[in-house]
Design goal:
The protein has 142 residues and is mainly alpha-helical. Helix content is 71%, strand content 0%. Helix 1 runs antiparallel to helix 6. The longest helix has 27 residues.
Length: 142
């Protein structure tokens, strides 16, 4: 019984220590510092969309890109990072489809406009990976 009490006490101490180390949960918490990086990139993509709308009015793919880009721009600074990240990845997927369907024509491509967004996707996925370990440890000790 003494051994059981000691293990329980150790588990409680480990849980408290891990909980102290986790100050941020990418799935639930806002990260205003990171969200500030998002202010410019969707605007750049939207500008390219408007340019292409002049050449391809009423194009359904461009309309879809615009809707996604607008929705990303409308996320509040206190939105969970993962929610916005999923939107960025959807935008990236649709842009890649556009680029392929346009024959990778550099005039119609979003390659330059997507550089900053791709950087954010990579950056935020790294943040997510860094938090997995701690989140799993908390779940283990619950």
């Amino acid at each position: 019984q003494l051994s059981k009490r000691k293990n329980t006490k150790n588990n409680n101490n480990n849980k408290k220590e891990i909980s102290k180390n986790i100050k941020y949960n990418i799935y639930k918490d806002s990260n205003i510092k990171e969200m500030k990086y998002l202010q410019k990139p969707p605007t750049i993509v939207s500008a390219k969309i408007f340019t292409l709308f002049k050449k391809f009015p009423e194009n359904a793919n461009l309309e879809q890109l615009f809707k996604i880009s607008k929705r990303i721009s409308n996320f509040s600074l206190d939105s969970p990072l993962i929610k916005v990240l999923i939107g960025l990845e959807l935008l990236n997927s649709k842009v890649q489809n556009w680029d392929i369907s346009s024959g990778n024509n550099t005039e119609y491509s979003f390659k330059e406009e997507m550089k900053e967004i791709m950087g954010l996707i990579i950056r935020w996925r790294k943040i997510e990976l860094n938090h997995w370990r701690n989140i799993l440890l908390i779940k283990t000790f619950k």
